[in-house]
Amino acid sequence: MTQPPMREDERHALAAELESGIMQLVAGNLFRYDAVRSLLDEGRIAEASDLLEEAVRTQRLLMAELRTMQARLRPDAIPVTP
Asked: Which one of 2, 41, 61, 62 is least enclosed by Cβ atoms within 10 Å?
């Protein structure tokens, strides 16, 4: 079954949600990865490892947010898992 096209207000809401949530998470992780590289270059392995763990947690959150958004856009397309 084909879904109707998104309305303009729905597109604006989706764009705002992407900007305020998902894109912020992606940007934050890019900064973390750069910081990890710098810490490794300085030999600060333990700090780099801690920051990398934080980036992994954020990445998992990002994936969950994307799955939730996808399920809202196309509820029949993918099961949402916890």
From this structure: 2
Answer for the pair 69, 22: CB distance below 8 angstroms, yes or no. yes
Flag whether pLDDT at 17 surpasses 60. Answer: yes
Residue 33 has what pLDDT? 97
Task: Report, in this order, helix, strand and coil percent for the chain, each rounded to 5.
Answer: 75, 0, 25
CA 11 → CA 16, 22, 33, 38, distances in Å?
Answer: 9, 15, 31, 39
Q: Are 59 and 26 in contact, with CB atoms under 8 Å apart?
A: no
Q: Distance (Å, rounded) from C-alpha 58 to C-alpha 65?
A: 10
Q: Please, what is the angle between helix 45-73 and helix 23-41, to 10°? A: 160
